[in-house]
Amino acid sequence: MSTGLLTVSPSPHVHTELTVPQIMRGVVFAMMPAFAFSIYNFGLGAVYVTFLAIIFCIAIEYGIAKFLLHKPASIYDGSAIITGMLLAFNVPSNLPWYLIFIGSAVSIGIGKMSFGGLGNNPFNPALVGRVFLLLSFPVQMTSWPTAGPTWSLDAVTSATPLGILKDGMRGGEPMEKLMGEMPSYSDFFFGLQGGSLGEMSAFALLLGLIYMLYRKIVTWHIPVSMIATVAIMTGIFWLIDPSKYANPLFHVLTGGVMLGAVFMATDYVTSPFTHRGMLIFGFGIGVLTVLIRLFGSYPEGVSFAILIMNAFVPMINRFVKQPRYGEVKSMQ
Amino acid sequence: MNLHHNKTFAIGGVHPEDQKLSAGVPIAPLPLPKTVTIPILQHIGAPAKIVVQRGDAVKTGQIIATHEGFVSSNIHSSVSGRIGIIEEVMDSSGFKHTAISIRVKGDDWEESIDRSETLVEEIKLTPKEIVARIMEAGVVGMGGAAFPSHVKLSVPEGKHVEYLLINGVECEPYLTADHRLMLEKPKEIIVGIKILMKALGVEKAIIGIEDNKSDAVELFQEVLKNEKGITVEALEVHYPQGGEKQLIQALLNREVPSGGLPADVGAIVHNVGTTFAIYEAVQKNKPLIDRVVTVTGKSVKQPSNFLVRIGTPVIDLLIAAGGVPEDTGKIVSGGPMMGKAIADLDVPIAKGTSGILLIPKEESMRAEVYNCVHCGKCIEACPMGLEPYRLLILSKKGNHERAKEEHILDCIECGSCAFVCPSNRPILDYIRLGKTQVRKLKKV
Amino acid sequence: MNSVILYTIISLTAIGIVAAVVIYFVSKKFAVQEDERIGKVEQVLPSTNCGGCGQPGCHAFAKAVVEAGDLSALHCPVGGNAVMKQVAEILGIQAVERDPYIAIVRCSGSFEYRKKTNIYDGESSCKIAATLYSGDTGCAYGCLGMGDCVEVCDFEAMYMDEKTGLPVVIEDKCTACNACVKECPKEILELWPKGKKNQRIYVACLNEEKGSTARKECAVACSGCSKCFEACRYDAITMENNLAHIDFEKCKLCMECVDTCDVHNIITANVTPEKIQAANEQRLKREERTRKKKEEEKLAAAAAKQTSNEPAPQ
Description:
The complex is a heterotrimer.
Chain A: E1 7-8, H1 20-42, H2 44-68, H3 79-89, H4 97-110, H5 125-136, H6 138-141, E2 144-145, E3 157-158, H7 161-170, H8 175-181, H9 185-190, H10 202-214, H11 221-240, H12 248-253, H13 257-264, H14 275-295, H15 302-319
Antiparallel strand pairs in A: 2-3
Helix pairs in contact in A: 1-2, 1-3, 1-10, 2-3, 2-4, 3-4, 3-5, 4-5, 5-15, 10-13, 11-13, 11-14, 14-15
Chain B: E1 27-29, E2 35-39, E3 49-50, E4 57-58, E5 63-66, E6 75-76, E7 81-90, E8 96-104, H1 127-136, H2 149-153, E9 163-167, H3 177-184, H4 186-200, E10 204-210, H5 214-223, E11 230-235, H6 244-252, E12 267-271, H7 272-284, E13 290-296, E14 304-309, H8 314-320, E15 328-333, E16 340-342, E17 355-360, H9 377-381, H10 388-397, H11 400-405, H12 416-420, H13 427-443
Parallel strand pairs in B: 1-14, 9-10, 9-12, 10-11, 13-17
Antiparallel strand pairs in B: 2-8, 3-5, 4-7, 5-6, 7-8, 13-14, 15-16, 15-17
Chain C: H1 2-29, H2 36-44, H3 58-68, H4 80-91, E1 101-105, E2 119-120, H5 126-132, H6 148-152, E3 158-160, E4 167-169, H7 179-183, E5 189-193, E6 200-203, H8 211-217, H9 227-231, E7 237-240, E8 243-246, E9 266-269, H10 273-309
Antiparallel strand pairs in C: 1-5, 3-4, 6-9, 7-8
Helix pairs in contact in C: 2-3, 2-4
């Protein structure tokens, strides 16, 4: 027989097609529409920030693995690229390079590697980096360039709709007046609004979500429960007093709700296993986001909400389990 | 075709590709080999006791080893000729076990065996006699588990059996032995079912068939038109539908309690090939000496279903299927999800060998392993509702008490978890190791 | 700003001091009372918590020794006789001297001698491969080479030799704690006395197949030829299932059997080749003498028979 030595290994001897590198590639592909839109809105600044974040994340992961941990680097699984892109999506497109570096170092170093690398981190690494930057460098992290088709690197800065809202509410202005100053809803949907790189275009993010659902990379449970909770909760408050609270559509389309629902909360490592657990998770994020937006001092609450719910995931996994075969006695 | 979804089990499961390459190939008898090597342990339980010696002349169907205790099985010669060397040889389990080799001369059968093809419908034996006959004939579970059938038919005191379930599911990709048997011998199988119903004293029997074998479903529906008590149910194609516990849940909506037996929920499950062997044993006085084996694989020239004498070396089947393809990387005894890879082509076909699958080199090696990303796909896939990623960690770290608490012994080793894991983690490797360690714990 | 920092430092320092004092008193009040000798014994133990003594950890060993009051059944292999002497002194009891042991590898089937018959692609763990099948070579008894033993060694006393594919025990570091022996699914590792002058001798094979089959599987497998068995004057070698085994209780380390093995699979440690050669020559001389003696006896017996056949003188 001229086949050479045969291979022997334990069963199973076949495998599904979906592997980690393929999933990572799929997620990056799903992020492309949002990335394209960010370039349209913010020009080369968006490209610059995103590429820097990716390069820094890869370099830091490689450096830590090789020189600190003396283990082979796992940069080829693509997760560092995704962390870099998501970090970039969560910051203004005019963020200076040294802050991008600090953000990447915190995301990868503290958010991921200190826990043991891929799969071991309890908190979403990109959000860890983003929140660290927000709290340490509030000024640079909250001055966004004006949205609008542009190719230049510099841009005039302006506030986001949520920022305008929070300041206006503090100033006591009525809702109708504030709403009049906002871009239109179609602008919100397609993304002509101020904000961080990736969070503006609900449309582009939805395209990404549809792609990931089709490839079976994510299921509908987290995005739907999170967005529905935000919509319903803000809806209740809006119905109670429309002069104090903005309507649900506004809340869903602005800020980081769409980005958080599609890419941040659905991260495998930091979200629950079971579908029921995912619904609870999404619900919790929605509630916390709305509480921070309506009653907290920050205009945006999605990042904090997701990080807080990440902390609850082990508990959710412990109490919300898959039904076990043989647990329920037969009906004889 | 009906629009509603066919029944299936509720928890977990995966959908590997069907690959039923040999579904349209009728069963062909394989020419007799020059030598057969019959292991004395082809079943769950104690190895059989050898009652022949080197140089003895034997006939086809003559007993050559007797059961050792109750949970054991008689072994018969599958050929006529002379007993050759009796020694330890490599068998499909991956380990060496004692086997009796027989040099084949002619094909002289024991006179008591009825070799005709005529259907014998009348069941003359009493239930006790039926069980005794099945034990004499050495019939074991032919779906692969090889559990002695007479033991399964001896229902423990206090348990009441209501349903006989016939497993015609054949959920493993590539395998078509049961499918062809159902298409070619439906009437014999039905008599076999009646024999089992008589032996168990049940009035209801259900045959479960996956709906990728719609021709078999329709054929049985036709043949059973005037039968009372026996029905056929088409089931959704869903691995591991053929697992005993999953089949019971799908057909009867009852769950076997953890650590319990199907009889606890009033059911007994038999594979359709076993049922046919029981027909032959009871109505034709024929012991278990041959079985249908599928030879298949993407590069196999002629995927086939052969009727093979027990003890035939695997190489004979491969040659009959067009030879061993050049690009063969792995040869599996059984199906791709639960089968055992073999490295030696002289390994004999045993009572539980349902198929030989040849896997090309590019699909033989495992892909790179990544860290667990906690995606939860293994938990979604596990048909027993366990948490495989956790059982891997516990087994690897040696935390066997905790693994036992997490019900590691409930694992049916179907391979769904490892199949679906995007990080290619060797989940089943460690769970199997963990199970053996936990069983050792129990004894201490 | 300055006063804020000052107040912060003062208040945190104060909290720290108060907490330290509280913890100190609590640790004294709630300290676990036990025989103070246990603590003293534990101090001299190696603190590796390897379980080689059979107890779950060094503290448990110290407790067991104090409670037993007698060292006949308890011994720390890592600390050895030196540590046990100290323990005996602390407790004021008789020290029990034991021969130091070491782990030996009873397989010589390196890549050179034992060819691969298939490619193993499962998880790289000997235990897992052993549950799957008899191995990726023809010998079902041989080392699987994936290093479960090396991983489990707490003392870094083992490593896998890349050239041979077999584990190597580092003599100076091995403490005979038994961890590797328990771990190996093929039972290839065994604890053996280190021996006088660190010299020891053992058969490095577990193959129970008949001679020709065994040699086909591995070029240096023990074929059961029994030449070593015949050479041993002290009945220290037994043959069972085509395999030779040396009983270290009976073996006098005379080294005469070593060169009888045609594949040199009787392994010696710290023995010079000259000594082995000398022992071999001694054996050959002895066998020559025995043969000559037998021949002389045969001739004498034949001559005696001759004379008794002649008719008696009248």
